[in-house]
Amino acid sequence: MSFRPPASLLSPSAKDMMSPLEIERAGEKADALARAGRKLEDALLRLEAARDEDGALRDPLIDAAADAVFGLTIQRELCGLRNQTDMVRRYQIPKEVMARVGITRKSKD
């Protein structure tokens, strides 16, 4: 006597397949997530390059990095990634940047 798996396990059902629109949407989400990650990496590199500068010169760089962290956090949540601990560890985000994430700054106009 031989054992055969059910036919439902052999071929994907129509309800499990992604439509072309869903595939396109997933690709757009992944692309936006990658762009936000690169933006954060660039901001952190600029901040690291200004490590020895005084506070007045570093403040705008810290703010830019905090804005990039906020943007990446939002994009990750839109993709279903709710735990941001991995992001902070992976990008090695400094505490001075994390302290400013989500803060609304007044315009200097």
List keywords for this structure.
109 residues, 5 helices, mainly alpha
List the helices and strands and how they pair.
Elements: H1 7-10, H2 20-49, H3 55-78, H4 85-91, H5 95-98
Helix pairs in contact: 2-3
Q: What would you say this structure looks like, in words?
A:
Helix 2 runs antiparallel to helix 3 (55-78). This protein starts with 6 loop residues before the first helix and ends in an 11-residue tail after the last helix. The chain is 63% helix and 0% strand. It is elongated. The protein is mainly alpha-helical and 109 residues long. The protein contains 5 helices and no strands.
Quick overview:
With 109 residues, the protein is mainly α. The chain contains 5 helices and no strands.
Please outline the major beta sheet.
none
User: What is the approximate shape?
Assistant: elongated
Question: What is the overall number of helices?
Answer: 5
For the CA atoms, what is the radius of gyration? 21 Å
Termini separation: 82 Å
Number of strands: 0
Instruction: Give the H and E element order.
Output: HHHHH
| Integer average pLDDT | 87
Q: Give helix % range.
A: 55-70%
The secondary structure category is mainly alpha
Low-pLDDT segments:
none
Proportion of beta-strand residues: under 5%
